[in-house]
Amino acid sequence: MRPAAVLLIVLALACGAPAPAPSPAVGRMPATWYAGGATCAGRPAFRVHEYQPGFFILRQPACTNYEKPFLYLVIGRTRALLLDTGAGNIDVAGAVDSVLGAWRATHDGAPRDLVVTHSHGHGDHVAGDDQFRGHANVTLVERDTLAVRAFFGFAHWPDDAVTFDLGGRVLDVLAIPGHQPASIALYDRATATMLPGDSFYPGRLYVRDTAAFARSIERLVAFSAAHPVTAFLGTHIEQQRTPYTDYVVGTQDQPDEDRLELTRADLVQLDSAVRTMRGRFVRTKLPRLTIWPM
Ligand SMILES: [Zn+2]
Ligand SMILES: [Zn+2]
Fold it and tell me: Which of 22, 42, 204, 286 lies 20 to 30 Å from 246 when distance is taken between CA atoms?
């Protein structure tokens, strides 16, 4: 720590003011997430990226499913949490085991327990559940709203925010129904990263319950006004680098896909567009996403 920073803290303590909160560890992103085309030859099952120590991003390649979803693995001292199990036709348990195995080999006392939960209950995020169900040291949270509410301890779904401690690493859990009834967002305090699933990502935001979706976006805006958010990392990329342009539904090869991370400015823009529609949703293109009522 620089002497000036020490002085500031000493002065703050002397004045009775709270010490400044530690800065979040900003994650590193690769230059591209390009997930290849139809052929799997020579391609690893998952692209695994260490965003920050103890925070891994796994991307399913295009050759196994055109949805190419992103999965997240966050590791604390007492347990690890996997968000989503992929779109199927892929060994997700093996990929997660190898990341956890490497982590344990280099970290004393690393956790053996794994919680497997979902951004929401759609098939392209839960297809690998059977690979974890019934395994020792694994708690699988089923995909339905009741199971999610009970596991995380929501008393007043979707309005109360709850926390989930991985051991020295706290996640905030927000209910964000609208895309799907069991949708949640996870916020990793260590990296100030929000994981909003299919509710907010660079692509087509399919909205089934417009009223619930509007309130969920409001909830994310309010949360991110009160907490730093370094990045919103969703579960797909369907957008091209060219603003207002997405790849056609089902496109397997997306060589010019947009970056994954969205910002609070993108969220505020979405919230503003949603408010303008006053409950009468129409398909609306924004620079980095499209609101797509179902
Ligand atoms: Zn979905
Ligand atoms: Zn999806």
Answer: 42
- Which 3 state secondary structure label does DSSP give 10? helix
User: Distance (Å, rounded) from C-alpha 38 to C-alpha 182?
Assistant: 31
Tell how far the Cα of 126 is from the centroid of ligand 2, in angstroms.
Answer: 10
Backbone φ and ψ for 122, nearest 5 degrees, come out as: -70, 155
Nearest to 220 by CA among 251, 195, 248, 250: 195
For residues 121 and 141, give the distance between their C-alpha atoms in angstroms, rounded to a whole number: 11
Query: Quick check: 156 pLDDT over 80?
Result: yes
Query: For the domain 35-293, what is the CATH code?
Result: 3.60.15.10
Tokens of 61: 């390649």
Residues 83 and 184: their CA atoms lie apart, in Å, by 10
Considering Cα of 118, then 163, then 56, then 73, what sign does the dihedral take? Answer: negative
User: Token pair 């260590």 is at which residue?
Assistant: 190
The DSSP bridge partners found for residue 232 are 194, 262
Q: 291 near 216, Cβ under 8 Å?
A: no
Confidence check: pLDDT of 6 > 50: no
* Distance separating alpha carbons of residues 99 and 47, to the nearest angstrom: 11
Query: Which residues crowd ion ligand 1, with CB under 5 Å?
Result: 122, 198
Q: Looking at the CA of 180, which ligand is closest? A: 1
Give residue 120 CA to ligand 2 midpoint distance, Å: 8
Q: What does R_g of the chain's alpha carbons equal in angstroms?
A: 19
Distance 207 CA to ligand 2 centre (A): 12
Residue 38 amino acid letter: A
Residue ranges of the domains in the chain? 35-293
Q: What is the pLDDT of residue 41?
A: 85
Prediction pTM value: 0.92
Retrieve residue 74's tokens: 């966050």
CA of 108 to the centre of ligand 1 (A): 37
Q: Which ligand is nearest to the CA of 120?
A: 1
